[in-house]
Structures are given as C-alpha cells and as structure tokens.
Specification:
homodimer, alpha/beta, Rossmann fold, 2 domains, 6-stranded parallel β-sheet, 3-stranded parallel β-sheet, 10 helices, amino-acid biosynthesis (chains A, B), EC 1.5.1.5 (chains A, B)
Chain lengths: ~290, ~290
C-alpha cells in the first residue's frame, strides 16, 4: 500500500505561505498582480483561467485580464505585450497558448520581459532552468509542481536514480534539469527508448509525463519507488487518467501521486508563487 | 581490441568540406571572418589561439585579433563587443574566458550577438541547445565535437543507452541534450551519483567529461561500448591523460577515442565550421 502524495496538502501549505507574503506586500504598498493574456474564448483557456482566478483570490493576488479577439494581428499583440512589460503594476504574465495560426509563437513569447515570465515560456527562462540558475525568469509551473511535491513529502533526491518519461520543453526536460540540480542521477526516456520498463524499474523516483494512458505498468515499478504522474489523459468514458495504471502501482510502490488530485492541483499555486516572487523582486529593486 | 576513433580522421573530412565551402563563399564575395577577443596574455589562451589561427588558415577562414589589456574596464569591453556585433565583416567571435575579475562574465557573454556566437556562450545559444533547435546561436564546440566523432564513425544512437559523466554547461549538459535529440536514452551522472560504474557499464555510449584522471575503470565498461573521452588532464609527469584508464579500456570496449588525438583535435574544426555556417547565413540573409 503506497503513501498517496496528495496535491491538496502541498497546495494548502503553499497557499498559507503565499497569503502571508501577499499580506506583507500589500502592507508595504505593493499589490501583487498577475496579467492574464487571452486571445479568443477557447474552452480550455477559460477553464484554466477560472481556476487561476479563484486561486489568485485565495492567496491575495490580483488578476488583470487582457482579452483580445482571436483574429488579432501579431503586431497588435506584440504592442500589447510591450505595454504590459512597461507597466510596473503588473508583476507576472500568463499568456494562453497555443496562439492562433496567424501569430508566430516564438516571436510573441520572447517579447515578454523575462522578469514577468511566471509561466517560464521565454528562451531566457528556459536558459535559466537549463543552467540551474534562479535569477533569470521562472521554470515551467508543472515541472516545478513535481519538485514541490517531492520537497513537501521529504522524498530524498541526492544520489538517487530518477527516470523521467518524456522530453518536452514544458515538463520532461525542465524536471530533468531540476532533479539534476538536486543531485539526482537522471535518465531521460522517450518514445525511442528501448526496454523502458527495465530502465524505470531501477529508478528511485519515476516522473511519468508521456501523455498516454497505460504507459507505466507493473514492470516499471519497484517497492522503494516514488512515482509522480504528471499526465492528464482522458479515457473513452471521459474519465481523467494519468500515465500510470494506478491500480497496478498503488499496491507495489512506496508512494505515488493520484490523477486527478496530484500534480495538476499544485500547478496553479506554483504560478501564484512565481507572481508573488516577481512582486517581491520588483519591490526589492525599487528600494535599491 | 577496440577500434580507435581518431580525431584526425574526423578533422580531415571536416576540413575538406570547410575548405570547399570557404572557396565558394569567397567566389561569391564573402570572406568568412572569425574575430578573436583576448584580454591579456594568458598562456592557455595564446596556445589555443595559435591552434585556431593555424586551423583557420588551412580551411580558408580569416582571423581578426582583438587584443586588449587585462585591466580593461567592463564598459570598454562591452563597447568593443557592440562594435564587433555591428561589423558585418565579422561572422563569428571567440571570446577567451575566464575573463579578468573586474569583469562580469554573464553581462559580457550575453552582449554578443547570438548569430555570431560560434562558441556557444550566450544564453540564447544555450536555450537553443536545450530546446534542440538549430536556428539560434551555436552549441559549445567540444560537445558538438563528440557528436561529430559519433557521426563520422557511424555509431548508432537511436534507441541506444548513453551515459554522460559530468553536468557542466560546456560539455555534460549540452552533449546530453544533443544525444537526446538523436533519440538516445540519456543518463546524466556526476559527483553525487551512486554506483556510477554499474550505470555506465549498462551504456552503449559512454561520454566521460569528469575532468579527473582514472575516473573510468574496467567496472564502467562493456564489450559493445563506444567510449568518448572528453577530458584533458595532466598527470604528475605532465603527460596528457583523459578520464578513462586507456590501457584498461582498449582491450575491452568496442571503440574509444584516444587522449591526446581524440575529441580535442576536432574542437577547433567545429569552431571553424560554425564560422563558415555563420558566414553562409549572413550571405543568405543579404540576398533575401
């Protein structure tokens, strides 16, 4: 019987800390503000936005919405981002992507000021994660949510073997870099990996971010293992499932995050944490 | 008896290709130019510079030296770099580091225009390697030299297990990212790795970049393995040695690079390749 690493517990502890910090910021005259930039009305974006706004309210972060038509030109969007960059009342920006087809994703995301890049989408944020430095931009929220769960539940990382399934810029690679920084020995697996089950079975920490139901079966697991299931998949009945066959894993492994109720729950709090950090940094730099 | 993966053979083939391409560039009116920026007269820098100038001459790249006093101010150096950025007669820049203590390394290296960053020192180049894209800056030359050797000797990478010893931004991490891009399954080991011998023994490709004589012994090796020894160490008698105990490895493994005569030999040719690419890109963009 594995310990279930619930996201809610991590979130509760994070939110308490954030609420305390936003109170302090407000007392000192700084209102921490997240700007949400959305083009059009995609249901996924709207759902995430509602969740973010609720979480923001809870921890004392103000949200400013910037909603534009889905057929907006790239130049107009770039101009709006430049305006937001100049606005020192906005500390962090969440830009919904994928962007509509008339817009060059790379040009737009790199227009954002790295110090406001709380979702880790700029090249500078990526270079920061890759270099293991903290002074440039922010890591992608989902990758950091994995690390926050490991930290909260005191899972040792130093000298441990970690296997990461997936090599995307949003989860696989950044979580690998962050595990490496904590002195884990990291193996990155992907669709071309041969005998993935053997490789993963040797891991003390297994991060599953393949995005396919049933990727991680019994053969991938061992009794000392901590499993972080990052994926959000939906089965034929529309039920939310991770990459891991939970019924197989739960009796075997040491500890595991559930889906739903695991990593996904923590991600929005990490976004808020980055906004609060950005507001604190902005306040510090004004004082200098 | 292992196949010895000699750097000279790789270099010869690279140089022939580069000489052909620089002839073509010159016929079309573009003289490919590498700018070398050096502060002071450190013996290491001077030795590397001599090697680079010789290699440049051989393949038809012109070198312009920018030599400044070691006590130059940061502002003065930044101004010189901005001048070089604006000079469209210079296609690539090699900046010797470490820089003197009065100069902030990060500020200076990121002042360089990414399209001239043939040594892969800017954050933008690093983000490019990390993202696996080729359109931004250049990867560090030593990391690419490892890949060039593997390519030249037709070592299969797809689905193979690669172990990298070392996690620096100059070799360990970039070579891991480049192996990943070639669809190898990559494990990154370092000083905190436990049972490194076991992990490495399972690898089909072993990249040793620890920087310590005798790191890789028999226990790390298997008969199907290709070993790339990146390190340049010197023993008590001043003799150049890699990380691998060559006498132990050579009877066991499938193939191995020697030290000296392996990776180090290829690095300068990679630098020239980047200059030629930068010159070709500059020519292409002028034509548009």
């Amino acid at each position: 019987m594995a310990e279930i690493l619930k996201g809610a517990e991590v979130t509760r502890s994070l939110n308490e800390d954030l609420a305390r910090r936003t109170r302090m910021l407000r007392e000192q005259g700084t209102e921490p503000v997240l700007g949400i930039v959305r083009l059009g009305e995609r249901p996924d974006d709207l759902a995430y936005e509602r969740g973010a706004m609720k979480r923001a309210e809870k921890v004392g972060v103000t949200v400013k919405q910037f909603v534009f038509p889905a057929d907006m030109t790239q130049d107009a969007l770039l101009e709006e981002i430049r305006k937001i960059n100049r606005d020192d009342q906005i500390h962090g920006v969440l830009l919904f992507r994928p962007l509509p087809p008339q817009i060059d994703d790379e040009a737009v995301r790199n227009e954002l000021a790295p110090e406001k890049d709380v979702d880790g989408i700029t090249d500078i944020s990526q270079a920061g994660v890759y270099a293991g430095t903290e002074d440039k931009g922010y890591p992608p929220c989902t990758a950091e949510a994995c690390m926050e769960i490991l930290r909260h539940y005191h899972i040792p990382l130093r000298g441990k073997n970690a296997a990461v399934i997936g090599r995307s810029q949003v989860i696989g690679k950044p979580v690998a870099m962050m595990l490496l920084r904590e002195n884990a020995t990291v193996t990155i697996c992907h669709t071309k990996t041969v005998k993935m089950d053997e490789i993963c079975r040797r891991a003390d920490i297994l991060i599953a971010a393949a995005g396919h139901i049933g990727t991680v079966t019994k053969e991938f697991l061992n009794p000392k293992q901590t499993v972080i299931d990052v994926a959000i998949n939906f089965d034929e009945e529309g039920k939310m499932k991770g990459d891991v066959v939970f019924e197989d894993a739960e009796p075997v492994v040491h500890s595991i995050t559930p889906v739903p109720g695991g990593v996904g729950t923590v991600t929005t709090s990490i976004l808020m944490k980055h906004v609060v950090e950005a507001a604190e940094r902005a306040q510090d730099s004004r004082r200098k």
